[in-house]
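RECORD TYPE: inverse folding
INPUT: structure tokens
STRUCTURE:
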């Protein structure tokens, strides 16, 4: 990201998006998925939608996922949840980004229960045959906060990173058993690579910044299975 020129014009930026979108489409399996994390900012909130318009020249938008990075909830608004005894506040001011799930046809079969959540009303488990294993679809709003860090420069030097869990959930939603290869054309600090390792998937990543690439390689080499 440090090699990227933030001062380029919107037209040049979108032309670059179109260029790599064509390259991704060329190597993507017909039943593959592209998950793109993109956020806006208060001074330019339209960026995600302009990017999506360009991507839709090559792909079909199958799902829009809302990544909630921070949340504040007043106790009086959560209903009857005995485990919540007070107000809840997790995260920071920049609270939301998009995950655009794009495919070639818009009808790729997914494994929604692979990232399912338990039913709140347990009577639903016996009410519906589809409620197997006490799981329902998580929906398209995912609350995944960043891990707490002490030193941003040392622990999170890339300004546009995301939690490993986010990449894991995208892979599992697509259907982990069907994934032959995970590719990230913008490797950054290697978060997607770590997600692929956690799920025992082959991975390829590209990164033009030597410092970020070196950090990603270091993190991959230091990786340990979750069960250790």
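DESIGNED SEQUENCE:
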């Amino acid at each position: 990201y440090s090699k990227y020129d933030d001062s380029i014009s919107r037209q040049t930026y979108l032309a670059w998006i179109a260029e790599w979108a064509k390259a991704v489409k060329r190597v993507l399996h017909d039943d593959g998925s592209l998950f793109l994390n993109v956020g806006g900012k208060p001074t330019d909130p339209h960026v995600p939608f302009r990017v999506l318009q360009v991507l839709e020249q090559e792909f079909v938008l199958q799902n829009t996922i809302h990544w909630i990075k921070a949340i504040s909830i007043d106790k009086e608004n959560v209903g009857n949840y005995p485990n919540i005894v007070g107000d809840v506040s997790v995260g920071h001011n920049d609270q939301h980004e998009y995950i655009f799930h794009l495919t070639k046809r818009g009808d790729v079969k997914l494994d929604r229960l692979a990232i399912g959540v338990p039913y709140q009303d347990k009577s639903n488990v016996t009410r519906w045959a589809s409620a197997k294993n006490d799981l329902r679809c998580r929906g398209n709003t995912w609350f995944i906060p960043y891990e707490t860090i002490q030193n941003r420069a040392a622990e999170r030097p890339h300004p546009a990173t995301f939690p490993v869990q986010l990449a894991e959930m995208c892979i599992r939603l697509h259907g982990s058993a069907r994934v032959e290869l995970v590719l990230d054309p913008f490797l950054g600090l290697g978060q997607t690579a770590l997600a692929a390792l956690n799920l025992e998937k082959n991975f390829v990543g590209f990164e033009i910044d030597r410092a970020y690439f070196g950090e990603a390689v270091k993190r991959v080499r230091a990786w340990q299975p979750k069960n250790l």
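NOTES: Residues 1-110 form a domain with the Rossmann fold fold (CATH 3.40.50.150).
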